[in-house]
Design brief:
0% of the residues lie in helices and 33% in strands. It has 63 residues and is mainly β. It has a three-stranded antiparallel sheet with strand order 1-2-3, with no helix packed on it. It contains no helices and three strands. Pfam families: Zn_ribbon_NrdR.
């Protein structure tokens, strides 16, 4: 049922406790496999969460 006009844009992460989308990043750590681990804290309720980010490779440029 995914139609071109019906998909919602990526809205980012939200706090599992209060639904807030605003976070402080308290710690950033690169991992051996190339990912980045970020510890974040909700600005509203102070709930702590951890996110893992992977770099996205750009497609090669063709001339």
């Amino acid at each position: 049922m995914n139609q071109a006009g019906s998909q919602q844009p990526n809205r980012g992460i939200e706090c599992p406790r209060c639904g807030c989308r605003h976070f402080y990043t308290t710690h950033t750590e690169p991992l051996r496999d190339g990912r980045i681990r970020r510890r974040k804290e909700c600005r509203h309720c102070s709930r702590k969460i951890v996110t893992y980010e992977s770099p996205v490779q750009a497609p090669p440029n063709r001339v």
